[in-house]
Amino acid sequence: MNADLFGLELNVWADAAIRLVMVVTLMTVVVMGYTYLERKIIARFNRRLGPTKTGPWGLLQAVADALKLVGKEDLRPRSADPWTFELGPYMIFIPIFMGFVIVPFIADFHIRLLDLGLIYFVAISSVSIVGWVMAGWGSDNRYAMLGALRSVAQGISYELPLVLSLLAVGMYAGSFNLGVIIAGQDVVPNIVWQPMAAFIFFIAALAELNRTPFDIPLGESEVVGGPFVEYSGIRWSMFQLGEYASIFIMSLVFSAVFLGGWMWPFGEDLGRWFQVLLSGIKAGGFFFVVVWIRISVPRMRIDQLMGYSWKVLLPLALVQVLVNGLVMVNGWHEVTLLISGLVGVAVLVTVTGRVVAAPSVRPGPARPLMPTPAIAQGEAVS
Amino acid sequence: MAQADALYVDYLPVLLAAIVGFVLVFSALIGSRLLAPFSQEREKGTTYECGMLPLQRASTNFGMRFYLYAILFVVFDVEAVFIFPWALSFMGIGQFAYWSMVVFIGILGLGLGYAWKKGALQWR
Question: What is the rounded average pLDDT of the residues B32-55?
Fold first, then answer.
């Protein structure tokens, strides 16, 4: 069996391997670029200069950081569980990297656009939560343990709005194949017809990426870096690489599902380099907004965080699915979708404002669900 | 046969991606093993606890509320898995498929409302 790669006829194994190697190179470059850009952007917001010394305009800062991290001593605490501790970085990085398989970069470059692409994406991206728990549990450190538990609670809560908003777009596009979804956006991108799904996806993606204001699992002032406390040197840089790689994937998926990826506008007509430009601008725009939010918004409290997912995002995402179905099954005009979506966005923004502005209500002492004679062995950690 | 071939061509890159991801992490760790200094000092192996010496193992009891969210998550994730095939095929069946999904989501919505009323969604 042969596959087609830029006009070359190759064996499917060789084809997949070459594409993967190209993606590894691209990922490394983009992750370095993202770390550099994030530092530069934050510096501009803070009226600083950011990295300037290494290379022209500090461009080689990321390379220097990587070299330093490779040369750092790699410690493992004596009391850590060796297997879970050692395998944690693998379990975090491998699923994130596997997510690249369904990502469409430009029209004729992707690894493999699966027909069940969206399901594969949401399934594989949540596997790395297991790695977080392994890292947190294996470190045998209180901060790491708490960070791991928080990251699980947050990861599974925001998984649902993420899945349902992607599902709403899949319904509208009639396919879960990201290539088909992009091809359907040659005239109007999906964000116009599905604004509420785009909002919900963006917020849930921020939470899945553990970015501010949802960085409770990593908050330095609360759990000193979360599950990564005990990791140093190259292992820590694996976590960092995984984090930025997942931002890269998430930005490409957002641009593909909602902004038309390489297709809109004129992507197919103006050739390969124009598609690269379109994809880059859209993914870079997503990344810029993520950094912008990081620098502007303080961290949420954990009760706000969990309540926001279950009481606001999840019902609205379900409503979006039902509205899409109603409009499609009755064959109403797409403008109905636009209007209902805008109403939804207005509701979402209002409710978000109220959640954030709400005064901190002390919920009172914890009531045990069952009347048990206190917790006898050791104190409960929360 | 053709279908099996398509499946093979589609999911071969997934397998290869897992292997490449493993090789990436493994080679980075090997590189660090070759370049980084290693010394055996007893004090370096203590758990970090902001300067204190840890009193007991960290893996003790933790809060019940984490389980509540996990249970709710399982319910709704199974629901999402059930909606996925419906989302692609309901247009072919029409009104009946749509309204049966409305009933299904309505029942789950009642469940969510019950959990909300009972205070299971309130972090305390």
Answer: 77
Could you say which residues from 163 to 182 on chain A have a Cβ atom under 8 Å away from some Cβ of chain B? Answer: 163-164, 167, 170-171, 174-176
Q: Output the six-digit token pair for A278.
A: 């379109």
Confidence of residue A161 (pLDDT cuts 50, 70, 90): very high
Q: Which residues of A touch B41 (CB under 8 A)?
A: none
Selected for mutation to probe chain B from A75, A118, A142 (highest B CB count within 10 Å) is A142
Rounded to whole angstroms, how far apart are CA atoms B15 and A164?
27
Helical pair A61-70 and A12-45, crossing angle rounded to 10 deg: 110
Q: pLDDT, tens digit, for every residue of A183-196? A: 888 888 888 888 99
Q: Which DSSP helix (H) or strand (E) runs through A104? A: strand A104-106
Q: Is the ipTM of this complex over 0.90?
A: no
Interchain contact, A74 vs B38, CB within 8 Å: yes
What CATH number belongs to B2-117?
A: 1.20.58.1610
Percent of chain A as helix, strand, coil, to the nearest 5: 70, 5, 30
Domain ranges (residues) in chain A: 1-71, 75-355
Helix (H, G, I), strand (E, B) or coil at B94: coil
Compute the distance between CA of residue A118 and CA of residue A134 in angstroms, rounded to an integer: 26
Instruction: Give the CA radius of gyration of chain B.
Output: 25
